[in-house]
Amino acid sequence: MFERLITALHTDSACAGDEEPSATRERLKACFPPGAARRMTQLGMLVSAALARVEPGADDAIIYATQFGEGRTLESFLESFPAASPTGFQTSIHPGAVQQGMIRRAQPVREFFPMAGGAFLPGQALLAAMLSPAPRVVLCGGEERGTWLREVGAAAGATFAYALALLGINKSDTNENAAHAERALGRVMLAPADEPAAGLAPAEWFALLHGRKNFDGIAAPGWRLRLTWSDA
Question: Highest taxon of the source (predicted)?
Fold first, then answer.
């Protein structure tokens, strides 16, 4: 069984998933240097702002999980043809959502694992976090709500972003573990399981984090997730 403590969490529901990119930019522009938000994608702004609240360090690992990535940004660029928008082109070839924030801050990290797509993405991202040798792992992710791409199954149905810090448990120091556990927001455990995998969709995973809801079920083939919150 793998186990980590949740020591920091930030979620952004983007007005229940319906927020337009322009509204996100207006709401979050104060989080970035003047003019920077104009060149960022909606997901880049949301994930970067969430990461800033969790404060990743140089010795941390970052795991980024997104099923569709910047679907709305891609739609906007394609819709600008035949007179393609220079700004739309700029955001269509951007670095990923995590890099948009980390490059701007010139901040190094120990490891970076971007993960995209997959029917069991949250469970697989959690497994990657558990297997990382870094003592502290920041797991982040999110989606952009699509319009016509959503209708063909190529974009998400809601906009959201999250970031949570997962601290490993030092099995050789029970006093340290007790101190961290007392301050922790919650606990994540993954254990081998033989039950059929129903899967845990990214939007369902976000709802668990945003609502701080306990969960005990299959998250990926062969793995049972147990999520518990200290205040639940």
Answer: Bacteria
User: 153 to each of 10, 59, 115, how far by Cα in Å?
Assistant: 28, 37, 18
CA angle 66–68–74, rounded 5-degree value: 125
Domain ranges of the chain: 9-183
**Alpha-carbon dihedral of residues 171, 176, 181, 185, nearest 10 degrees?**
-110
CA distance 73 to 57: 29
pLDDT tops 60 at residue 36: yes
109-165 confidence digits (pLDDT tens): 889 999 998 789 999 999 999 999 999 999 999 999 999 999 999 999 999 999 999
Q: What residues contact residue 82 under an 8 Å CB cut-off, 6+ apart?
A: none
Whether 122 and 142 have beta carbons less than 8 Å apart is answered as no
- CATH homologous superfamily of 9-183 equals Thiolase/Chalcone synthase (3.40.47.10)
**Residue 11 near residue 185 (C-beta atoms within 8 A):** no
